[in-house]
Design a protein that fits this description.
Blueprint: E1 2-6, H1 11-16, E2 24-25, E3 32-37, E4 40-42, H2 45-53, E5 64-65, E6 71-75, E7 78-81, E8 87-93, E9 96-106, H3 108-115, E10 125-126, E11 135-145, E12 149-164, E13 167-175, E14 192-203
Parallel strand pairs: 1-13
Antiparallel strand pairs: 2-5, 3-4, 3-14, 6-7, 7-8, 8-9, 9-11, 10-11, 11-12, 12-13, 12-14
C-alpha cells in the first residue's frame, strides 16, 4: 500500500507561482539536483531523473516571472507576497531577509520530516494530542537582496519512506528555503531523498 502527501510548505507556492500567467522571460535558472539513500549519494543521472519524474509534486523550475510574482513591503518589517494578502514578518541581516508566516498548527508526521530538510525554521509550540496536531510553528522563507529585487532560494524535495512489504509513503513539495545538509545523515534504511536547489528572482514593489 502506498500513501502520498504533499507538504503544507508547498501550498502557497501552488497558489502563486503555479497558478499565475507567465509573461516576463528570465535566464534559465541554475539547478542542482541531488538524490540520497542511507548508503550515500546517487550519481547516476538517469536514476536521479527517473526518481524525480515519479514525484507527486513536480520538480519544475520556471525561467519566467508572472505578474503576481512580487514582494511588497507594507512596513519596514512586514511584507506581502503577490496578491495573497498574508503579512510575513521580516528579520533582516545584511542582504538576507527571513520571512516568517503566521503561527499555524502542523501535522507532526509530515512537518517533522520536512523541517529536518530546512536550513531555516522557527521554534515549535507543542499542542495537546487531542487537537490532532503536533505543534504550532511559523513557515519560514528566505530571500537575498536590497529590497529592489529579491533572490529567493527554491527547494524542491521528495522523501520516499519505505515501510517494508511494498508499503511506502511519499512526502513531496517545495518551499523558499535552503537545504540543511545535516538531513543526509538522518536518512533511514530503505528511504530515498531527493532535493533540488534553485532560485527565482522576484521584484520588490
Amino acid at each position: 500500500m502506498s500513501r502520498t502527501t504533499l507538504s503544507v510548505a508547498c501550498v502557497f507556492l501552488l497558489s502563486t507561482l503555479g497558478a499565475c500567467e507567465k509573461n516576463e522571460s528570465k535566464p534559465a535558472p541554475d539547478v542542482r539536483l541531488r538524490v540520497f539513500t542511507q548508503a550515500g549519494e546517487i550519481t547516476n543521472e538517469k536514476v536521479k531523473q527517473r526518481f524525480i519524474e515519479q514525484s507527486p509534486y513536480p520538480f519544475t523550475v520556471s525561467s519566467e516571472i508572472g505578474p503576481n510574482d512580487f514582494l511588497r513591503f507594507v512596513a519596514p518589517d512586514s511584507v506581502i507576497f503577490g496578491l495573497n494578502g498574508v503579512r510575513l514578518a521580516v528579520v533582516q541581516t545584511g542582504t538576507q531577509h527571513l520571512l516568517y508566516g503566521p503561527l499555524a498548527p502542523q501535522d507532526p508526521n509530515l512537518s517533522t520530516e520536512v523541517r529536518a530538510l530546512l536550513k531555516y525554521t522557527s521554534p515549535v509550540v507543542p499542542l495537546p494530542p487531542a487537537t490532532g496536531y503536533g505543534f504550532l510553528t511559523k513557515n519560514v522563507w528566505v530571500g537575498y537582496g536590497d529590497r529592489s529585487t529579491m533572490r529567493m532560494p527554491l527547494l524542491h524535495y521528495r522523501i520516499r519512506q519505505s515501510f517494508g512489504g511494498g508499503s511506502y509513503n511519499d512526502l513531496a513539495g517545495a518551499t523558499f528555503n535552503e537545504f540543511n545538509e545535516a538531513a543526509i545523515r538522518t536518512i533511514r534504511p530503505g528511504d530515498t531523498l531527493a532535493v533540488q536547489e534553485s532560485s527565482i528572482t522576484v521584484p520588490v514593489r
